[in-house]
Fold these 2 entries.
Entry 1:
Amino acid sequence: MAVTGTDIRVAKAFLMKGELVAIPTETVYGLAGNALNEQSVLSIFEVKNRPAFDPLIIHTDTISKIEQYVSEIPEKARTLASHFWPGPLTLLLPKKIIIPDLVTSGLDTVAVRIPKHPVALDLLSQLDFPLAAPSANPFGYISPTNATHVNAQLGDQISYILDGGECEVGIESTIIGFENNETIIYRLGGLEIDQIRDLIGEVSFMPHSSSDPKAPGMLKSHYAPRKPLYLEKRASISVFDPDQTGYLLFDTYLENVDKKYQRLLSPSGDLKEAAHNLFAYLRELDAMDVNFIKAERVPMSGLGLAINDRLQRAAATE
Ligand code: AMP
Ligand code: MG
């Protein structure tokens, strides 16, 4: 087990030595290392067992630091940044040579974000390098939203877990790129699309892909529990083998199933609360004495789009 603590100085000391530290953000916990140090970046891929074609997001605390790492910030990107940073928004921008190719999997854009978590921001403000920080879980598994989740899976492979409590948002950042005057959403996430549209107008979607290395985080199977997960509409959730199935539901219990096998994402029907609980409840169901997990789709508005996207990938088998 890794040492878990709240001492930013300890985290900083390990990071400056090139070692990895798990850090809290408002989206999910990150497995952080010095993004400018190739050895540190390599260890991130090794510890996560992450394929080298899946690029990393770099994190820092100010736009002026970001200007050291990217060659251009288009006007729409600046508008988005000034409204939503710090926050669950990642921008793909043309990288400067200082960013190792390992970080971007050879792409000429780098993903950057200023996270909205006081502990992360405090740490980042004390570093003169950005942190590469993918979610602190083995590749393909459910992302961690508290320090215990991180310790359970990566605890014996990292130096320190900086504990910042539970992640408020609970799902990963929304990823946006810019090509030929077009604004493209590459990953649905913690920032709602309508907020983006309200600010900069129409945006398009990059279609999901399981093999195109240009669209890595869009792998079809991701965020997955170990147990088979079936995603269904409420009306078609049939109760079979009640003792062998765990249920992930939106706001209402199933009547004919013991409540101990059911988790409600938000009893009041609040999609923000549902996002916040999503990964923790998936883990609880995965750890339960059941053979299958059935999940229902949540309403397709606001964060519901990102939640259903995660459930879809958690249900995919390849
Ligand atoms: P994670 O850090 O685990 O949330 O994953 C980061 C995701 O960001 C990757 O899986 C990619 O989908 C996406 N990403 C990072 N850098 C780029 C890039 N330069 N171009 C396209 N997508 C990227
Ligand atoms: Mg991840």
Note: The longest helix spans residues 271-287.
Entry 2:
Amino acid sequence: MNIQALLSDKVSQALIAAGAPADCEPQVRQSAKVQFGDYQANGVMSVAKSLGKPPRQVAELVIANLDLTGIASKVEIAGPGFINIFLDPEFLAKSVDAAVSSDRVGVTISEPKTVVVDYSAPNVAKEMHVGHVRSTIIGDAAVRTLEFLGHKVIRANHVGDWGTQFGMLIAYLEKQQQENAGEMALSDLEEFYRAAKKHYDEDAEFAERARAYVVKLQGGDEYCRTMWRKLVDVTMTQNQITYQRLNVTLTRDDVMGESLYNPMLPGIVADLKAKGLAVESEGATVVFLDEYQNKEGEPMGVIIQKKDGGYLYTTTDIACAKYRYETLHADRVLYFIDSRQHQHLMQAWTIVRKAGYVPDSVPLEHHMFGMMLGKDGKPFKTRSGGTVKLTDLLDEALERARRLVTEKNPDMPADELEALANAVGIGAVKYADLSKNRTTDYIFDWDNMLAFEGNTAPYMQYAYTRVLSVFRKAAIDETELLKAPVVIREDREAQLAARLLQFEETLNVVARDGTPHVMCTYLYDVAGLFSGFYEHCPILAADSEEARNSRLKLALLTAKTLKLGLDTLGIETVERM
Ligand code: ARG
């Protein structure tokens, strides 16, 4: 059910009948205030301008041609020429009826597209740190949303699994194996990387060996490949545990690391040269872009192959975009990467477009995000100033949630309590991130995210259980209930119904813009409207059987919508808390 689309169609027709061109924009939006109705159409003004007529006059004409029988109970002109649309309670009732009896609460399947989503992307032999959290959590919510809408989603985990550091890592792994009789001391990846680096910096002979291994690895040497694979394997096994804890849908099959594109790089460089886009400059191969200027105001040079023959992060991202279009047949590619990499991506994609690797009809979208900051407003660090390991962060979340839910549910059995703590703790960390507009930095604050009031996971999870408890008390069979009709008489019923019916519109915004916070705001709003409705419109004590059943159905649709909505965010729900 997409009321906005339905109204857009109707208003378009009326605009055209009033003299507007066939491609006019009806600009139908959800109204921000109840007094403006449920929706408003703002397209009259620009149409009036192009027709050279007074907007109110055009608005009158549009209304005369606007047939909203059975949809709206009132349509009025406001201000300079806005059209306010008030939905008919009967239309709302029928739509709620249809939505509540469907598994998908009436959400239609979009025209299926192949969408590649680049997210998470940790680095090999490094612990996944909080910097990867945002990409993983936000990207996964986008993936779930796109899949729910019926798209074919390809998860692309662009793992950093290639580069000159692997010579050093292989040399150190070898040393470890010799000293510990084959035991892999890779459990602490951070420590492993640091120790490898230390040897590289301090031991000339080790550094020599490391450099030789880089060359051998790139040449396809069997021993080096095996050692490299071990490093990748151990890292991704550890990351997989984290994904599971986070309730993130990535699997080992989704790994499409940098190494995948490695064999394509010589061809890319040769092709860019042949196309006259890349040139030799001081021994390196460079693409000069007029679109970007360096400090001297000259076209910026983007190196795609170094003097020593090595390729760069940009070269890989050029090949990667091409591959996603050519081989994966992407209709659209979404990248969830922090904002500091914006220029890098723009440069890579400018080259991709110039070379004709991906047509303009296939969008390459950078959905960027800011940093995670501590309460002091500085980059999130441990007390001693180190990077916070994700596993430690999740352990702490669980510990805090455990304390919280134990206090609130002293009589709950231990295993249920543990499951609840997990849902609340992990949910809190994820929701705190998801609920903020991703483009800005955000402050990581335990007390805020675990609060039972406000737009938080615990509040939303609790709101869901409250709706469920109404059913437990009603002790009614769902199939029986579905036979009873919804009737809408009270304003609070109408407002809740109208908002519930905007679920699909919300999903579409998240899918289009990659902004899960829009879903959080929506669900929070639904929970608030439900509270108001629950307080003012008695459900179990309704004065007629009809009203009672109708209100139970509104409650049922609320429960279903909250659950599905939280699902698209990757937030677990529980039956009681
Ligand atoms: N591994 C990279 C990092 O940790 C992120 C990769 C993002 N994806 C991409 N296609 N460049 O910074």
Note: The CA atoms of residues 129 and 222 lie 31 Å apart.
